[in-house]
Design goal:
Order of helices and strands: HHHHHHH
Strand content: under 5%
Number of helices: 7
Structural class: mainly alpha
Distance between the termini: 149 Å
Helix content: 40-55%
Shape: rod-shaped
Oligomer: single chain
Length: 216
Protein backbone atom coordinates (compact mmCIF):
# COMPACT_ATOMS: atom_id res chain seq x y z
CA UNK A 1 0.00 0.00 0.00
CA UNK A 2 1.52 3.35 -0.99
CA UNK A 3 1.94 5.99 1.75
CA UNK A 4 -0.05 9.14 1.59
CA UNK A 5 2.12 12.25 1.06
CA UNK A 6 0.43 15.50 1.90
CA UNK A 7 1.15 18.54 -0.16
CA UNK A 8 -0.03 20.86 2.59
CA UNK A 9 3.07 22.70 3.96
CA UNK A 10 1.50 23.47 7.29
CA UNK A 11 0.83 19.78 7.96
CA UNK A 12 4.41 18.86 7.00
CA UNK A 13 5.77 21.43 9.39
CA UNK A 14 3.55 20.19 12.21
CA UNK A 15 5.06 16.63 11.86
CA UNK A 16 8.71 17.80 11.98
CA UNK A 17 8.96 17.64 15.81
CA UNK A 18 7.65 14.06 15.87
CA UNK A 19 10.06 12.95 13.19
CA UNK A 20 12.89 14.63 15.00
CA UNK A 21 11.99 12.93 18.28
CA UNK A 22 11.70 9.53 16.56
CA UNK A 23 15.11 10.00 14.96
CA UNK A 24 16.69 10.88 18.35
CA UNK A 25 15.22 7.80 19.99
CA UNK A 26 16.43 5.57 17.17
CA UNK A 27 19.96 7.00 17.43
CA UNK A 28 20.07 6.53 21.23
CA UNK A 29 18.87 2.91 20.83
CA UNK A 30 21.56 2.16 18.30
CA UNK A 31 24.29 3.84 20.51
CA UNK A 32 23.45 1.47 23.32
CA UNK A 33 24.14 -1.52 21.09
CA UNK A 34 20.68 -2.18 19.89
CA UNK A 35 19.91 -3.44 16.45
CA UNK A 36 16.99 -2.86 14.20
CA UNK A 37 15.72 -5.96 12.41
CA UNK A 38 13.68 -5.46 9.34
CA UNK A 39 10.97 -8.05 9.27
CA UNK A 40 9.88 -9.51 5.99
CA UNK A 41 6.35 -9.02 5.11
CA UNK A 42 3.98 -11.91 4.41
CA UNK A 43 4.69 -13.77 1.19
CA UNK A 44 2.17 -15.60 -1.05
CA UNK A 45 2.58 -19.33 -1.04
CA UNK A 46 0.47 -21.09 -3.73
CA UNK A 47 -1.60 -24.04 -2.48
CA UNK A 48 -0.44 -27.53 -3.42
CA UNK A 49 -1.77 -28.99 -6.64
CA UNK A 50 -4.78 -31.20 -6.28
CA UNK A 51 -4.67 -34.66 -7.72
CA UNK A 52 -8.18 -35.49 -8.85
CA UNK A 53 -9.04 -39.05 -9.82
CA UNK A 54 -9.76 -39.62 -13.54
CA UNK A 55 -13.34 -39.26 -14.57
CA UNK A 56 -15.28 -42.43 -15.04
CA UNK A 57 -17.07 -43.00 -18.28
CA UNK A 58 -20.79 -42.64 -17.95
CA UNK A 59 -22.73 -45.69 -18.98
CA UNK A 60 -25.58 -44.83 -21.34
CA UNK A 61 -28.97 -45.00 -19.71
CA UNK A 62 -31.28 -47.44 -21.42
CA UNK A 63 -34.65 -46.03 -22.31
CA UNK A 64 -37.47 -47.71 -20.51
CA UNK A 65 -40.06 -49.35 -22.74
CA UNK A 66 -43.11 -47.17 -23.08
CA UNK A 67 -46.09 -48.61 -21.38
CA UNK A 68 -49.45 -48.63 -23.11
CA UNK A 69 -51.62 -45.67 -22.18
CA UNK A 70 -54.16 -46.46 -19.59
CA UNK A 71 -57.64 -45.92 -21.03
CA UNK A 72 -59.39 -43.04 -19.42
CA UNK A 73 -62.55 -43.83 -17.65
CA UNK A 74 -65.53 -41.98 -19.07
CA UNK A 75 -69.03 -41.80 -17.82
CA UNK A 76 -72.05 -43.06 -19.73
CA UNK A 77 -73.03 -39.65 -21.12
CA UNK A 78 -69.53 -38.98 -22.49
CA UNK A 79 -69.38 -42.46 -24.02
CA UNK A 80 -72.75 -41.89 -25.64
CA UNK A 81 -71.57 -38.59 -27.12
CA UNK A 82 -68.43 -40.23 -28.48
CA UNK A 83 -70.43 -43.01 -30.10
CA UNK A 84 -72.81 -40.45 -31.61
CA UNK A 85 -69.89 -38.52 -33.11
CA UNK A 86 -68.40 -41.73 -34.51
CA UNK A 87 -71.71 -42.62 -36.16
CA UNK A 88 -71.98 -39.11 -37.62
CA UNK A 89 -68.47 -39.35 -39.06
CA UNK A 90 -69.25 -42.78 -40.52
CA UNK A 91 -72.46 -41.49 -42.14
CA UNK A 92 -70.63 -38.51 -43.61
CA UNK A 93 -67.95 -40.82 -45.04
CA UNK A 94 -70.57 -43.14 -46.58
CA UNK A 95 -72.42 -40.14 -48.03
CA UNK A 96 -69.22 -38.80 -49.63
CA UNK A 97 -68.43 -42.22 -51.12
CA UNK A 98 -71.98 -42.49 -52.52
CA UNK A 99 -71.78 -39.01 -54.07
CA UNK A 100 -68.45 -39.86 -55.71
CA UNK A 101 -69.90 -43.09 -57.07
CA UNK A 102 -73.02 -41.35 -58.47
CA UNK A 103 -70.87 -38.58 -59.99
CA UNK A 104 -68.78 -41.21 -61.80
CA UNK A 105 -71.91 -42.91 -63.14
CA UNK A 106 -73.38 -39.59 -64.28
CA UNK A 107 -70.45 -39.09 -66.65
CA UNK A 108 -71.66 -41.94 -68.89
CA UNK A 109 -75.23 -42.78 -67.77
CA UNK A 110 -78.68 -41.28 -67.87
CA UNK A 111 -81.00 -41.17 -64.87
CA UNK A 112 -82.80 -44.31 -66.00
CA UNK A 113 -79.55 -46.24 -66.41
CA UNK A 114 -78.29 -45.09 -63.00
CA UNK A 115 -81.56 -46.18 -61.35
CA UNK A 116 -81.19 -49.63 -62.90
CA UNK A 117 -77.48 -49.89 -61.96
CA UNK A 118 -77.73 -48.70 -58.33
CA UNK A 119 -81.31 -49.42 -57.31
CA UNK A 120 -81.59 -45.84 -55.99
CA UNK A 121 -84.83 -44.07 -56.78
CA UNK A 122 -84.91 -41.25 -59.33
CA UNK A 123 -85.77 -38.56 -56.78
CA UNK A 124 -82.73 -39.38 -54.62
CA UNK A 125 -80.43 -39.31 -57.65
CA UNK A 126 -81.79 -35.93 -58.71
CA UNK A 127 -81.30 -34.54 -55.18
CA UNK A 128 -77.69 -35.78 -55.03
CA UNK A 129 -76.94 -34.32 -58.48
CA UNK A 130 -78.34 -30.90 -57.51
CA UNK A 131 -76.52 -30.75 -54.15
CA UNK A 132 -73.19 -31.96 -55.59
CA UNK A 133 -73.45 -29.78 -58.73
CA UNK A 134 -73.24 -32.32 -61.55
CA UNK A 135 -75.60 -33.57 -64.29
CA UNK A 136 -76.46 -36.92 -65.82
CA UNK A 137 -76.31 -37.65 -69.51
CA UNK A 138 -79.49 -36.71 -71.41
CA UNK A 139 -81.73 -39.50 -72.63
CA UNK A 140 -81.39 -40.31 -76.32
CA UNK A 141 -85.12 -40.69 -77.11
CA UNK A 142 -87.22 -37.96 -75.54
CA UNK A 143 -90.36 -36.03 -76.37
CA UNK A 144 -92.41 -36.62 -79.50
CA UNK A 145 -89.59 -38.48 -81.24
CA UNK A 146 -90.13 -41.39 -78.88
CA UNK A 147 -93.85 -41.68 -79.73
CA UNK A 148 -94.85 -44.41 -82.17
CA UNK A 149 -98.02 -44.63 -84.20
CA UNK A 150 -100.50 -47.11 -82.77
CA UNK A 151 -101.21 -50.02 -85.08
CA UNK A 152 -104.23 -52.09 -83.94
CA UNK A 153 -104.03 -55.87 -83.85
CA UNK A 154 -106.81 -57.00 -86.17
CA UNK A 155 -106.92 -60.57 -84.85
CA UNK A 156 -107.12 -59.42 -81.23
CA UNK A 157 -109.79 -56.81 -82.06
CA UNK A 158 -111.96 -59.47 -83.76
CA UNK A 159 -111.57 -61.80 -80.79
CA UNK A 160 -112.49 -59.04 -78.32
CA UNK A 161 -115.53 -58.12 -80.44
CA UNK A 162 -116.81 -61.73 -80.26
CA UNK A 163 -116.36 -61.69 -76.48
CA UNK A 164 -118.26 -58.39 -76.23
CA UNK A 165 -121.20 -59.93 -78.09
CA UNK A 166 -121.16 -63.01 -75.89
CA UNK A 167 -121.04 -60.99 -72.66
CA UNK A 168 -123.82 -58.71 -73.91
CA UNK A 169 -126.04 -61.77 -74.55
CA UNK A 170 -125.32 -62.93 -71.00
CA UNK A 171 -126.82 -59.68 -69.73
CA UNK A 172 -123.68 -57.96 -68.51
CA UNK A 173 -123.55 -54.17 -68.50
CA UNK A 174 -121.00 -52.10 -70.36
CA UNK A 175 -118.94 -51.58 -67.20
CA UNK A 176 -118.96 -55.28 -66.37
CA UNK A 177 -117.92 -56.15 -69.94
CA UNK A 178 -115.01 -53.67 -69.84
CA UNK A 179 -113.82 -55.26 -66.57
CA UNK A 180 -114.07 -58.77 -68.04
CA UNK A 181 -112.13 -57.80 -71.17
CA UNK A 182 -109.50 -55.80 -69.24
CA UNK A 183 -109.57 -52.92 -71.74
CA UNK A 184 -110.07 -49.19 -71.38
CA UNK A 185 -113.37 -47.44 -72.06
CA UNK A 186 -111.86 -45.78 -75.14
CA UNK A 187 -110.84 -49.15 -76.61
CA UNK A 188 -114.28 -50.58 -75.81
CA UNK A 189 -116.05 -47.75 -77.73
CA UNK A 190 -113.60 -48.15 -80.63
CA UNK A 191 -114.47 -51.86 -80.90
CA UNK A 192 -118.21 -51.12 -80.86
CA UNK A 193 -117.80 -48.61 -83.70
CA UNK A 194 -115.40 -50.78 -85.68
CA UNK A 195 -117.57 -53.91 -85.66
CA UNK A 196 -120.97 -52.16 -85.53
CA UNK A 197 -122.02 -53.70 -82.20
CA UNK A 198 -125.20 -52.24 -80.75
CA UNK A 199 -124.53 -52.44 -77.03
CA UNK A 200 -127.45 -50.67 -75.30
CA UNK A 201 -126.78 -48.57 -72.27
CA UNK A 202 -128.55 -49.35 -69.03
CA UNK A 203 -131.37 -47.01 -68.24
CA UNK A 204 -131.24 -45.19 -64.97
CA UNK A 205 -133.55 -46.54 -62.27
CA UNK A 206 -136.46 -44.61 -60.77
CA UNK A 207 -135.57 -41.60 -58.70
CA UNK A 208 -136.26 -41.88 -54.97
CA UNK A 209 -139.45 -40.30 -53.75
CA UNK A 210 -139.10 -36.77 -52.51
CA UNK A 211 -140.64 -36.00 -49.16
CA UNK A 212 -140.62 -32.36 -48.13
CA UNK A 213 -139.20 -31.59 -44.71
CA UNK A 214 -141.75 -30.70 -42.09
CA UNK A 215 -141.94 -27.06 -41.24
CA UNK A 216 -141.29 -26.29 -37.59
Amino acid sequence: MSAYISTDLNMVKELDPQRHELAMLQEAFLSKGGTIEVLRGPSFVPPPARHEPPRRKKTPIKAKPMSEPVPRKVDKLTQRDLEREERAVARARERAELVDRIRTLAETMTYAQAVEATGICLRTLQKIAVEAGFKFQPAVHTGRENLKRYVPDEAKDAKDAERIKALMEEGLSRHQTIVQLGVSFKTFIRLLDKFGIDFPKRKAGPHPAFFPKPQH
